[in-house]
Structure formats: C-alpha cells, structure tokens
Amino acid sequence: MPMSAETRTALFTELRAALRRQSPPLVCVKETASACEFIGNIPVPYGSTKKIVPGMAFASVVVHRDMVSFHFMPIYYHRDEFAPASPTILRRLKGKACFNFTSEDQIDRKELKALLERGVRAWRKLGYVR
Questions:
Q1: Could you tell me the residue range of the domain that residue 56 belongs to?
Q2: CB 3.0–4.6 Å: which of 16, 33, 39, 83 could bond 55 by disulfide?
Q3: 0.90 exceeded by the pTM?
Q4: Is residue 130 part of a domain?
C-alpha cells in the first residue's frame, strides 16, 4: 500500500533538514521537491579515471511511492564505526548505504544527528571536507 503524500513529505522534510544542519561543511548540489543531494566541499579525484569531481558524495534523500530513501555514503566505508551509535536507525538500513523509511516514528532525531555528525567526522578524516 502506498504511503500518504503527507507522510512522504514529512519524512523528506525531516531528513533534508537534518542534512542542511550539517551544511557547511557539506554542500547541497541538488534540490527538488522529491530529492536532494549533499557532497563534501573539497574537489577530489573519483573513479577509475580519477576525474576531479567537485566533492565526494555524502548523502541524498529520495522520495518514492512507498518509502523515502536516505543514501548515506560514510556508512559504506566505515560500517563498524556507526553500529554502536544508531541502533534504531540501523534497523532501517537495507543494503550497504541505503536507509528506507515508511513512517515518521522510524526516525530517531537524536540518532540521526549523531549519525550525520559521525559521517562528517569520517569525511573530514578522509579529506573530503574542510
């Protein structure tokens, strides 16, 4: 059964606001009514060709018909560092870096804030943000 438009909007708004609170140092490179994407603030070589990109992907939020996806790249590289900090949010992790939310009560604001702060620290350590 599809989610209500109100639930999709509330989830998207909550996740986008949490990312915005980390900016700077993160930079928003895409924002529409149904998606937003944040990257680091230091140009880095990327891919097999080592092409310089404006910043390493950090996180994005995408609205779907039956869920809101939160793609969080730091957890892909450092999964063990995030396990003790965010048990409620980690239950929503599907795959390696994608969290799927279907209701507002699945987001623990305190854990989300801690998750994002750890992510920024990891990106800083890797040299992706100043």
A1: 5-123
A2: 39
A3: no
A4: no
The pLDDT of residue 81: 76
Question: Count of domains in the chain?
Answer: 1
Of the candidates 114, 10, 118, which has an alpha carbon nearest to the alpha carbon of residue 61?
10
> Up-side HSE of residue 67: CA atoms within 13 Å toward CB?
13
Peptide bond preceding 43 in cis form (omega within 30 of 0): no
Q: 64-68, 93-97, 117-121: which range is least confident on average?
A: 93-97
> Looking at residue 98, which CATH number applies to its domain?
3.90.1150
Average pLDDT over residues 83-94: 77
**What pLDDT is attached to residue 85?**
64
Query: SS in 3 state form for 52-118?
Result: EECCCEEEEEEECCCCEEEEECHHHHCHHHHCCCCHHHHCCEECCCEEEECCHHHCCHHHHHHHHHH
